[in-house]
Amino acid sequence: MASGSGDEEGNTEVGSWRLIGPVEGLSEKRCRLMYCSLGFKSDVCLFYVKGEFFAMDARCAHSGGPLCEGDIEEADGVLQVFCPWHDYDFNLRTGKSGTSLQQQVYEVKLEDGNVYVKHGNRLSLEPFPADQKS
Question: For the segment 93-131, what is each residue's pLDDT rounded down to a tens digit?
Fold first, then answer.
């Protein structure tokens, strides 16, 4: 199952569907860092929790903490990731926090056994060579 309808508040990114990889391999880890062709500040986390994929900016909106290293918890039916630096929480579906902070979230779809993320730039599970970033 994939997440994101495109109508959720934190999802304003216009882009193309980016092939990330096969569901089988990507569902083996709770979070994977997807490198963005724009560089470090634009990387994206791909979460796999309770049979669903979610994607959001990898750096916390507060101070840039690595959300892929954060704890994931469910409270009142809401899946949240907690930043490991200052414990800010973000809803995996909407990107909303219990504070006024907002993380950018991205649509995810599953098609023909593969995971796709809708994003404005190229994404990869491997870092981009320095001369290929753009």
Answer: 999 998 999 999 999 999 999 999 999 999 999 998 876
- Residue 93 near residue 86, CB atoms below 8 Å: no
Q: How many CB atoms lie within 10 A of CB 129?
A: 7
Judge whether 62 and 86 are in contact, CB under 8 Å: yes
Among candidate residues 47, 51, 129, the one with its CA nearest the CA of residue 81: 47
Residue 80 has, within 13 A of its CA and on its CB side, a CA count of 19
Of 53, 8, 6, nearest to 26 by C-alpha is: 53
* Intervals of the chain under pLDDT 50: 1, 4-12
- 45 and 32 in contact (C-beta within 8 Å)? yes
Beta-strand runs (E) in the chain: 16-22, 31-36, 44-49, 52-57, 71-75, 78-82, 89-91, 105-106, 108-111, 114-119, 123-124
